[in-house]
Amino acid sequence: MRAPSTLSTPMARFADALLAVDLPALPVDPRRQTVSFIDERVQTMPSVPRFGVKAIGIGVDILSKLAGVDRVISLVTKLPIPLLAEYPRLIRSLAFAYIWETWPATQTDGAQ
Amino acid sequence: MTATNEWAANHECEVLVIGSGAGGATTAAILAEAGHDVLIIEEGPWVDQGEVVPFSLEQMDRQYRSGGVTVALGVPSIAYTEGRCAGGGTEVNSGLYRRPPEQAIARWQSEYAIDDFDADGLLSICEEVEAELTVQTVPGEHTRASEILRDGAAALGWQHDESPRWMSYPEGGRAVDGKRQSMTRTYLPRAFAAGARMLTEHRLDRIVMSGGSATSAELSTTATGIDQPTTITFKSVFVCGGAIQTPAILQRAGFRHRVGRTLAVHPTVKLAARFDETVNTPDDVPVFQVKEFAPGISFGGSASHPGLVALSLIDNWRDFGATVTAWPELAIYYAAITSQGRGWVQAIPGVRDPIVTYRLTKRDRALLGQGLARLALLMLEAGAGEVYPSFKQAPLVRNRADLAKMTAAFAATQASVMTVHLCSTAPMGENYKRTATDSFGKVHGATNVWVNDAALLPDAPGVNPQASVMAIAIRNARRFADERAG
Ligand SMILES: Cc1cc2nc3c(=O)[nH]c(=O)nc-3n(C[C@H](O)[C@H](O)[C@H](O)COP(=O)(O)OP(=O)(O)OC[C@H]3O[C@@H](n4cnc5c(N)ncnc54)[C@H](O)[C@@H]3O)c2cc1C
Questions:
Q1: Domain ranges, residue B333
Q2: Is B421 an annotated catalytic residue?
Q3: Are residues B443 and B374 in the same domain?
Q4: B294 and B402 share a domain?
Q5: pTM for this entry
Q6: pLDDT in tens, B296-332
């Protein structure tokens, strides 16, 4: 079992907020465990995409502090900017694959 | 002798083989059996078959490069995966076996001017490989997800067949009873029996060159807790790191000519189909393939454990997400194309991993759309109540009218495109303008550096490539051994 993340990186904070929106009923513990998993996976990504993900993560984190995380999530998710749009998609992909493999009975809203 | 990950500062050998996948393991076995002193180095760990659940996240953690999160940048970007363990991709793949098509062999021979390269020779090596890997069809019951492909194709009168696999089965065994005959069970033990040695969890960082000759290899260990370099001296080196790592290794050694410029893949798009019965087999893949539109387009089935089902729905989670709880009734299928596009692999000084790009052509994008539409039609014919295509803003498909909507809405740039078949980053042949190596894998401009893996294939063969990789690797290794035997 992965230790719950402390949300210490920009990416972890964004992932946590994104999951809270996508899967509002997912309890905090599995959510944090999922965020830890995502964090670990991003650390093992090949150098260049990892650098890109981290750079976007920092930008999004700063924006979230200024404009509010919910607004930034909806903006980043909807804007058709190729690399920016890949960011929430990557996080969602890792999160959903992890959640349904680890807890296959999870409901669509994250309830377990 | 088996593999070890024990660290030592120096090693010596006559032939160094970098990578232990389909190309490296066969090379090592043939050369060791011919009496050469062979040392294999492998970046990943040794994981016995059966130790982890196939297609699971744990498998991705332990046996895939970067946990399976690797991408060729482009519009759209293409997600790809590479094995990174003893046995390479052969340990984690679907085991679907296809001989290299005779047309592809003839095309490669003529366009790339490959000497002594013909269908008879390669296909007779394929026969040996088939015996060694016990390539066979499923003796007993198929999975339901597999039968769906067969039934849908039959209903439409489309050509389809069962792909044999490198599996062993108990007598009359079911599809799910198969045991994958990967390199850790076949060619690597053969190499060890003939005296080859193997270091796992050792990554080649650099081949040291002196003029056109490679003199030594610098390695670091990937095992945790050890941070010591290793140097290996050798007479000859075979680079078998797979189609992404091999060109990066060559580039770092100073080889540039046609290296990493012509990455070829089979791009795929996918969908999830829901039936009114249990169809999901989480840890196996369907064996039927639909070849009606081959080599341009072919259809098959993917691993479908619940995490992957969720993944296939994320592009339209708001509309499709509710179905994830019914994952036992869902299975994932793909349409694969032969692509005219090409990609690049480029090592960057001081950066560990190469950058990979891929550009789909207009025709490729159109073909992906056609493929997905025909695959959805096949699913409806097979009895699917609902089809969930994996691209943004895709409609749910329940009937032919929805299918027309789906076809109109498809854009490859909005799709989750992925591939597991990577080749052609150091093509072989005497046509110097198009090739990075000679007809037997020796790198142009080098005296003692060979490539012997998927990088050599002049282009993507249009079928599952492992048999092509193995047959070519065995051919080239034999040539090397024969020349030295006088
Ligand atoms: C998920 C998946 C499913 C697939 N399904 C099929 C299928 O059903 N049928 C089929 O025919 N093909 C399939 N393939 C493709 C097939 O596995 C490959 O074509 C084949 O393995 C390529 O062989 P290779 O020797 O070129 O590379 P690999 O088998 O990838 O081996 C390369 C090895 O080199 C090692 N290596 C790389 N760099 C270094 C370094 N610097 N130092 C040390 N070691 C290094 C890697 O860790 C790896 O183990 C699939 C592949 C994947 C990933």
A1: 141-163+171-178+267-419
A2: yes
A3: no
A4: yes
A5: 0.95
A6: 999 999 999 999 999 999 999 989 999 999 999 999 9
